[in-house]
Amino acid sequence: MEEHEKIRQGIRKIYRLFIGIFSLFAVLAIAIIYMLNNPDALSRKKNIPEAEYVAVPEEEDYDKIENGIHLRTGLLEAEGLTEVINNCTNCHSAKLVMQNRMNKERWIATIRWMQETQNLWDLGNNEEIIVNYLVTNYPSKKKGRREILTDIEWYALEQ
After folding, report:
1. Rounded to whole angstroms, how far apart are CA atoms 13 and 137?
2. How many CB atoms lie under 10 A from the CB of residue 120?
3. What angle do CA 148, 96, 124 make, to 5 degrees?
4. Residue 139's pLDDT is what?
5. What is the domain partition of the chain in residue ranges?
6. Assigned CATH topology for domain 65-137
7. pTM (global) more than 0.70
């Protein structure tokens, strides 16, 4: 009889172990289903409102020019402005155009570099119009970043 009792106790232990493992799997399955339905449940972020969208300017303001400046891009109004906007500001900001002041050869070399490495399309007849606009309105400057400081009273730092 003792052997039958030992076998029963062994079966009970296995049965309890089986119930425990099954319960663990059930809890894990419920947790996984919950996380799939609520992915932000464990996120430490608080309820952050969604970003507000900025209204796109109306068509009449889209190409508005005031005081010789194209308001949307900041480029100077001159012959070739439309071509520059249509071909240059598709890929980068107009500010990049304004800060890179170059002569005709360097503008052309920059266009060739963009065509070879940045997938800039063939500008065709627009290239001459664009380069003339850039050379006229954004030429290279002979002056450096600022003039040399003059009439400054320097003082010695004490140690």
Report:
1. 89
2. 17
3. 125
4. 87
5. 1-40, 65-137
6. Cytochrome Bc1 Complex; Chain D, domain 2 (1.10.760)
7. no
